[in-house]
Amino acid sequence: MTRLVLIGAPIAIVASILLNSGDSEPPAVVQQAAGATGGNTETPGVDESAERIASLPPGLAAPSMKETASRLVASAEASTLDWRSQYGAIEDIGDGTGYTAGIIGFCSGTNDMLQLVESYTEGHPDNPLARFLPALREVDGTDSHEGLDPGFTDAWRAAADDPAFRKAQDRTRDKLYFEPAVRLAKLDGLGTLGQFVYYDAMVLHGPGVEADGFYGIRDAAMASADTAAEGGDEKTYLNAFLDESRSAIKARKVQRDTSRIDTAQRVFLREGNLGLEKPLVWRVYGETFRMG
Fold this sequence. Notes:
Strand order of the largest sheet: 3-4-5
Number of helices: 11
Helix content: 40-55%
Largest sheet: 3 strands, antiparallel
Number of strands: 7
Structural class: mainly alpha
């Protein structure tokens, strides 16, 4: 995942984050200067966007569909459909982002883990992770474990037994990833599958504006195909977005498997399942998963 301080972010990011109703401070965003380049079209004002989104079907935000999304992400992130089993998961997977942990892979090197632990500690100052906050601030932006070892992984697992920490993970996931992705997908005219494609890409690539971040990938896709909101064909645009997401994965030095696209999302798209309706059958890392 990419750092969450989006300096020079396109105006669409501003609208997406301002519409977020999370209860902790959003990432710092500075609007692009006039005339800045990028594939984003003019974005409606926040009030107008909120009204438009409120008038649309819930899509991926419906509780049953959000559960589906969580299980799909878990199949790619942890090879399981039981996403709730991942609250206490923690390891360094060697991708340069330090420790990766929790239900969507919060990372010690990418700011989202820091935001999570700070938010949790505000309401529960005596939690097992609180003493590691100075170290988390120091290692943010790096792959270092300095000040975290020994003890941090045990503290994470202990905290995961606390329902309040599990709720904090849910809130941080929604605030930083799920809600911005779904709102922006709706503004782009995408249905439930497209909303999931955006959410999964936000989790996988992080909400960065560089070429391998979510907003950079979206810009590249919009440069080659019109979104549905722009009058384009939804399947054509989603294929373009998946092409760009796949290219970003293949450009990595590690974690270059693209099956979450090739044998999962692309399968749903080829089948024309824009509503992400069950039953679903897909493969990730060679393993077959099903939801009926």
